Amino acid sequence: MDVVTKKYSEEHKIVISEAELQLRIAQLGDQISRDFQGRAVHCICVLENGFLFVADLIRKITCDIRCQFVKPQVIQRKIGNRMMEEILYTPDVNVEGQHVLLCEGILSTGYTTDFLYRSFQARGAASVSLCTLLNCEHDRRVELAIAYIGFQVEPQWLAGFGLGSPTLNRNIPYIFAFPKTEQE
Fold first, then answer.
1. Which residues neighbour 64 within 8 Å (Cβ) at sequence distance 6 or greater?
2. Which of 35, 57, 71, 177 is deepest in the core (most CB within 10 A)?
C-alpha cells in the first residue's frame, strides 16, 4: 500500500475498493462488448468525474470504439423568484448515425445527462445508451433509462478514482466518503 493510499484509507471510509472497481469495470466492459458486438461504439465521457472510469472501461471493451469527451458547464441564473440552471457544452461531437455510449463517473440529479442524451438523439445518433460508474437514485430529478450501472450509492460526498474537488483526491485508486463535517 503506497503512502497516499495508506493515509486516506486510515482517515476515510472506503466505499468501493480498487479491486471491486476493477472487477465491476471488467464486467461492464464484457456486457457492453456483447451488447454492441459487430457495431462501433462512440463512447462520450462527461468530464471531469468520468475520466478514470472511462479510461479503464474502454480498455475492457472489445468492439471498435471511438472516445471523445464533453465538459458541460452549468450556469445558475435567477429568473424572478426562481433559480434556473442552464446547461452549456461544446457541441463539436459528431454523433450522426453513431451508437453512443454516454458515460458518467457519478449520476445524481440527471439534469445534465438528460440534456446530453436528448441532444445526441436530436443530432442523429443511431442509439444512445447511458453508462455510469456510480448511480445515486436518491437525488434523481428526471427519469433516465440507464443501461449500464457500476454501483448503487447513497447520497454522500465521494472522492477518489476520478471523483473529487477540481484539484484534490482524484488520484486515489478507490472511492471513499468524506465525513459530513469535512464536506461543509
1. 39, 40, 41
2. 57
Question: Which residue in 120, 150, 152, 155 sits closest to 139, CA to CA?
Answer: 155
Q: Name the CA dihedral angle for 163, 166, 167, 168, rounded to a multiple of 10 degrees.
A: -30
Mean pLDDT along residues 126-133: 98
pTM of the model: 0.84
pLDDT digits (tens, 9 = 90+) for 23-39: 999 999 999 999 999 99
- For residue 88, what is the enclosing H or E element? strand 82-88
Please determine, for residue 10, whether its predicted confidence score (pLDDT) is greater than 90.
no
Domain spans of the chain, in order of start: 38-177
Q: Rounded to whole angstroms, how far apart are CA atoms 10 and 8?
A: 5
Domain spanning 38-177, CATH architecture:
3-Layer(aba) Sandwich (3.40)
